[in-house]
Amino acid sequence: MLVWFLPLFLVFLLIGLPVFFSLLAAPGILLWLNGQSSDAAMLYRNIYNGIDSFPLMAIPFFMLAGELMNRSGITMRLVEFSQAMMGHLRGGLAQVNILSSILFAGLSGSAVADTSAIGSMLIPAMEKQGYSKKFAAAITAASSVIGPIIPPSGIMIIYAYVMGESVAALFLAGIVPGLMVGISLMIMVRLLANRYDLPPSTKKSSWKSRGKASLKAFFPLMTPVIILGGILGGIFTPTEASAVAAAYAFFIGLFVLKSLEWRDVPKVLTKAALVSSVVLLLVGAAMAFKTVVSLSHAPEHLADFVLSLSDNPYILLFLINLLLFLVGMFLDAGPAIIILGPILGPVFTDLGVHPVHFAIIMSVNLTVGLATPPMGLVLFVASSVSGEKVESISKAILPFLAIEIVVIFLITYFPALSMSIPLLTGFAK
What we know:
Blueprint: H1 5-14, H2 19-33, H3 37-51, H4 58-71, H5 74-86, H6 92-105, H7 111-128, H8 133-144, H9 154-163, H10 167-173, H11 175-195, H12 207-216, H13 218-232, H14 238-256, H15 265-295, H16 298-309, H17 313-330, H18 333-350, H19 355-368, H20 377-386, H21 390-396, H22 398-413, H23 416-424
Helix pairs in contact: 1-2, 2-3, 2-15, 3-15, 4-14, 4-15, 5-6, 5-12, 6-7, 6-8, 6-11, 7-8, 7-20, 8-20, 8-21, 9-18, 9-19, 10-23, 11-22, 13-14, 15-18, 16-18, 17-19, 17-22, 18-19, 19-22
């Protein structure tokens, strides 16, 4: 009977029940109906147990760092730097949007924060330059998925926590795929520039102007260097790195750039706490959901079913990408990883897929799902920021989603793209 927990969960989602309550109600009801009231009590205790983790503390700290960066006007410096470098190209502001997302990814690791921060600045600017509002919102949403791929990444922290993998290995494995997504979007914008007659945003900047923009962006751009350098150098753990990033953002904003004021601090802390609480509650609920997954023996059943389809790992990887893409349409990346990771991960590692490689396949696919209709979270954020309907953004984003799917399959079938850096640095074996 317990195997019906997933269909019931999907039913709850379809009728509009929030994800947190769906994750708890579906297994709770089935355990009660099955006469396993003691297991039902354990289910709800596991909410707290799922949150009570040192590695997960990295998530609120990275979110705090991103919020401090936003409040300090650091996002604007990144946009100015991007504009100085690429603003003169056809579709210049669209290219600036993508490059800003790549740079911002090294600060926050959040697609939603990227869409909100960069979109609020660039969508109105793009509209003034002659871009349609739906195109501006679509490229903002499409490029925002880079945030959780390039380190630091909240999604990869969750995966590492659930599956017992190295956070550093996952961070390093995400660098090349994240850059590939960004470059592929730039290529697509260039192809669409002639079709839609996209304008350049500015005249070509002089090297002096680029130098000034680089200096203004220097301190923000040092954030990912400090994070990755500290982790790779063994100076601090990923969780400690997140605290260092938050402290660095606070110091830079308050004392160096002096763009952050003491009266802003309570607002920043409150907003970071609210966003973090949502994520951590979802993680706790998903870990409780995972309890029923193990009790139902669903991983074993799924493994048997998957292996009955084919014994060719390439075909199975193709099918699993389709499954993850469909899941990403309806479910947020964090809960999806916690639910599906323990089910799918062992199946593919037994087939010879490296655990870190599979982690990247899953993380990138579900991250792209954040921008996938009908339930992609960043689509709704982009709609809120731009004032454009979700339906029109969903149509405009399709070419960008197509190129991102191509990147997913390249990552899937060419493991070296994601595995070279962690293998060379010794963080993966």
